[in-house]
Design goal:
Layout lengths: L4 E3 H8 L3 H10 L5 E3 L2 E5 H13 L6 H7 L9 E8 L3 H16 L8 E8 L4 E8 L1 H17 L1
Antiparallel strand pairs: 1-3, 2-3, 4-6, 5-6
């Protein structure tokens, strides 16, 4: 069985690069690939070679990309969670929201790639958090909310 082939569109989330940038890198030979019909395809071996070259050159591949190629399944699994926080005092809801934003902006890199969004509704003292990331990230976030719940 041959190596897996990736299209430019499949490489976009893996490399964190825009499709046009990946196509340019392929044309310039920075990423090895071949054209099949009108589409560029990159083998898993060539992608690993590019990733290792990027790391050796201290360029901008994130640790999540390396972990993906080391076969860590938790880096390939994405989990989403929605948390609604209800506080009678809108200032308290804002304080908790700001604390969560601060904590997550300095998150542990081992948690992998993640995303979070916050919507505040001061009139009702409610904040809605939407999280997407690895199971490790979601578990850590839920523990933070567990701690917040114990405070009250």
């Amino acid at each position: 069985m041959g190596a897996k082939l990736y299209s430019v569109e499949e490489l976009e989330p893996i490399l964190g690069l825009h499709v046009k940038t990946i196509q340019r890198f392929l044309r310039e030979g920075k990423i090895k690939g071949r054209k099949i019909g009108r589409s560029w395809m990159v083998s898993s071996e060539d992608l690993k070679e590019y990733a290792h070259a990027e790391l050796a050159g201290q360029e901008s591949l994130q640790s999540r990309d390396v972990a993906y190629w080391n076969g860590r399944s938790e880096e390939r699994i994405r989990v989403s969670a929605v948390v609604e926080l209800h506080e009678k005092d809108s200032e308290e809801a804002s304080r908790i929201t700001n604390s969560m934003i601060a904590a997550l902006s300095q998150k542990d890199p081992s948690w992998g790639p993640s995303d979070f969004r916050v919507a505040q509704y001061p009139e009702s003292g409610t904040a809605r958090f939407i999280f997407t990331g690895s199971p490790v990230f979601i578990t850590a976030v839920m523990k933070m909310f567990e701690f917040i719940g114990e405070e009250n």
